[in-house]
User: Fold this.
Amino acid sequence: MRIDAEVVQSHNDKTLPDHRESFGHLSRVLEKKRLEPTHLIQKIQDFQIAIPSWALGTGGTRFGRFPGGGEPRSLEEKMDDVGLLHALNKASGAISLHIPWDIPSDVEAIKAHAASHGLLFDAVNSNTFQDQPDQLHSYKFGSLCHTSAAVRKQAIDHNLEVVRYGEALGSKSLTVWLADGSSFPGQMNFRKALQRTLDSLRAIYAGMPEDWKLFVEYKPYEPYFYSTVIQDWGTSHLLASQLGERAFTLVDLGHHLPNTNIEQIVATLMMQSKLGGFHFNDSKFGDDDLTVGAMKPYQLFLIFNELVAGMEDPESTNPSPAWMIDASHNLKDPLEDLLQSVEAIQLAYAQALLIDRVALEEARERNDPTMAQEILQEAYRTDVRPLIAEARLQAGGALHPIQVFRTISVRKELIKERGLKSLSTGL
Ligand SMILES: [Mn+2]
Assistant:
């Protein structure tokens, strides 16, 4: 299924007068703050967020999975789904693949298919947290950290194979998330496990093309419950620093213990030019992988405050981070959830662009916490939804993506095409 531009246009026409009114009002508010709407719209349009191939089907919990029907059955159909999102929001112009779930059988055909949707290939992801049916050695007790050199070699070779697939498709980075860890005190030699992980990552890093980046993800617990080899941003940063200048830390919003100050981590990593990528989601308790902005939109704004500060710093040498969603959808339609997530990211980004940074810095220098809070909340409490809608409208997207998605019955069409029982590969 594809959504024609004319269909989007005709839906936009119905709500255009209301939109014009609210955007006109917001434009006047912004201009009073000496902010140029056209400039903001350009920035919002340039901000593309990659959709992970594993989030297009219904995710599960460890207790069950309740598929909603019409899930993509192949890599082509996964790209079709991202194409649907991009046709509606014009902000999902990239897909992040996971190997072995997304091995391209015909590279040229896959590339042409992506191009027909206007999609690029973002970071590729390896998988050493599960055993595949044809696999010689098991990852039950770890992959890159394993005590056995043969297991480590298998995991390294898998990562290099993922790089080769990514290279063929035009991807420029590899994200490594390791489940490696232990569930019982005494089970693992922490020092040896970390050293072996570093050595394995060195072999992967050495096998990447020269223009590739390596993103090292971290997570404090799960699937193991006592220790994780790359447990936090400090460990990830340590590994990335020892690997070299094309290795970076990747921040996943769900990979922190409760109440962690993630915005401070972002600031520190950008200061060190080591923030490589971002996995957006939201959480209440742990790695809940909920819709972005569903739980803690103010935290998301504060994170974007640091991201924008880092990106706008003329002295910063941090490369532009790779933006990705990493979520799992158990209750909602995955595509609707992704539309909501992308919009939440755009809203937080736009609000962070409104912050009066000169005044904020002055307030900080004179130790004025009241005014610093006023400045941040002035930006946060501005309703920028018409601005995001206008950015979509000008790019040829929908004023109200979810409304269009429902009105033209996208899910029903997908079920008709793919069947009610179709299951997507992925988490
Ligand atoms: Mn992640």
The chain has 15 helices and eleven strands.
